[in-house]
Specification:
Elements (H helix, E strand, L loop, with lengths): L1 H9 L5 H8 L3 H13 L20 E9 L8 H8 L4 E6 L6 E7 L2 H12 L5 E9 L4 E2 L2 E2 L8 H7 L1
């Protein structure tokens, strides 16, 4: 399972035929493994990583640290569920350390993100404080270097191993 997940994390566009060759199994077996991983909820979706610095009017991204009061018997799950449901939120992580939740959001402008934090996040019950960090540039995302000429297709990487 780990090998197929690793291959798909590096290139979600690999066909069942390509997966079969790389894993040393039949195409049908590869398709069945992928379908089983999807059915079990291990594979939740397939995404495209974009170098947004090359996109006109790219969204503004920010990471917001949230300090929260966990709910009795529910822990952090209740507040996490409420944060996850907000449209501007891309990702939410439970953290160890100085804050409890790391919330990644996007908006059209810095002002839009700031307003979202002030009016939607900071006002949620259980939220004690927020600390917003605007992302100025992304150099690497999901294991992919975003600069020109520095990404390699997984097929060429695997052939050289």
């Amino acid at each position: 399972m780990e090998k197929i997940l690793s291959l798909l994390r590096n290139n979600a566009r690999l066909s069942n035929r390509e997966l079969a060759v790389l894993l040393g199994i039949t195409e049908e077996e590869a398709a069945a493994k992928v379908k089983a991983l999807e059915k079990e909820g291990i594979i939740k979706g397939y995404l495209t990583v974009c170098n947004e610095s090359k996109i006109e009017n790219a969204p503004v991204h920010a990471m917001i640290e949230l300090k929260v009061v966990p709910m009795k018997e529910l822990g952090f799950q209740d507040i996490a569920n409420r944060v996850v449901a907000l449209e501007a939120v891309d990702s939410v992580y439970l953290m160890a350390g100085d804050y409890d939740l790391a919330v990644f959001v996007k908006g059209k402008t810095m002002q839009e993100v700031a307003t979202f934090v002030a009016k939607r996040l900071a006002t949620l019950d259980s939220v004690l404080s927020t600390n917003t960090h605007f992302i100025l540039n992304k150099y690497k995302e999901d294991g992919i270097i975003l600069e020109d000429g520095s990404t390699q297709d997984i097929r060429s990487t695997l052939k050289s191993e």
